[in-house]
Design goal:
This protein folds into two domains: about 220 residues, Dipeptide-binding Protein, domain 3 (Roll); about 25 residues, no CATH class. It is about 35% helix and about 10% strand. It contains eight helices and nine strands. The strands form four sheets. A three-stranded parallel beta sheet has the order 3-2-4. Helix 1 packs antiparallel against helix 3 and helix 7 packs antiparallel against helix 8. The longest helix has 18 residues. The protein starts with 5 loop residues before the first helix and ends with a strand.
Length: about 250
């Protein structure tokens, strides 16, 4: 269970070249993402979580410290039991940006001596693997959140269908998952804004230390309007709310 080892997850996180994703795929219109809550969420975003910048030297050192080295000289590391570290990395077809990002991620992991078999499959099939058959090993996918972190409860709570690293748990499998569970429940019950913020900031810190998910980048959203419109307010959902737009030429 390689991904069950937090040090392995941290090493993989250090292998992802976010700058290459931003420059080569997003044409400079992107930002590194380090947390489950984006800066657009305001107070709920924690900018001080642990970060894993692109650093192959550090990533290799972590894997070496585990004793997971290339013992037979074939270019692929083996784990402590002598098993070659090889797994499938999937994403969905029909999204060229995501496929290009996945190939950059694949290259980073292969630079560590991991054998990564890349495959792009139909989105419906991928969703079925994630929430039904659980027949997958590593995946690149995007999740849509909301202005309140509680919108991610099915992903972060251990009982959730989308709790990807071990869904629908009857009891939290680890202490850190139990802590995140508690933060999300307390956050959903609390009315005081400052207290709610503390719960969700803490949840992000716990998640960043344990790396159940590895983040890539955030896309910059650009909205263009003709100069004859007034009261334009760009948001993540383009222009909101069109009821308040007016024409300045009439």
């Amino acid at each position: 269970d390689w991904f069950g080892n937090v040090q392995f997850r941290q090493a993989v996180a250090h292998s992802i070249d976010k700058s290459a994703i931003i420059d080569d795929v997003q044409h400079g219109l992107g930002y590194p993402q380090w947390s489950s809550v984006s800066p657009s969420a305001g107070d709920f975003h924690n900018p001080d979580v642990r970060r894993y910048p692109y650093d192959l030297e550090k990533a290799n050192a972590i894997l070496d410290s585990l004793g997971w080295t290339d013992t037979d000289g074939d270019g692929t590391r083996e784990d402590s039991d002598g098993n070659a570290i090889e797994f499938k990395l999937v994403t969905n077809t029909g999204n060229s940006v995501r496929q290009e990002v996945t190939q950059i991620i694949q290259q980073g992991m292969e630079d560590l001596g991991l054998k990564v078999d890349y495959e792009a499959i139909d989105f419906g099939e991928l969703v079925g693997q994630l929430v039904s058959t659980y027949d997958w090993e590593a995946v690149v996918i995007g999740f849509t959140g909301g202005p309140d972190p509680y919108s991610g409860i099915t992903l972060w709570h251990s009982t959730g269908d989308l709790h990807l690293w071990y869904p629908n748990q009857p009891e939290p499998a680890t202490d850190w998952e139990a802590e995140i569970d508690a933060m999300y429940i307390l956050g959903s019950q609390e009315l005081d804004h400052a207290t709610r913020v503390r719960y969700y900031l803490n949840a992000q810190e716990i998640a960043a230390a344990n790396v159940p998910l590895i983040y890539t980048t955030l896309s910059e959203r650009l909205t263009a309007t003709r100069n004859v419109f007034g009261n334009t307010t760009p948001t993540l959902y383009a222009l909101w709310d069109i009821r308040y737009l007016y024409r300045t030429d009439q």
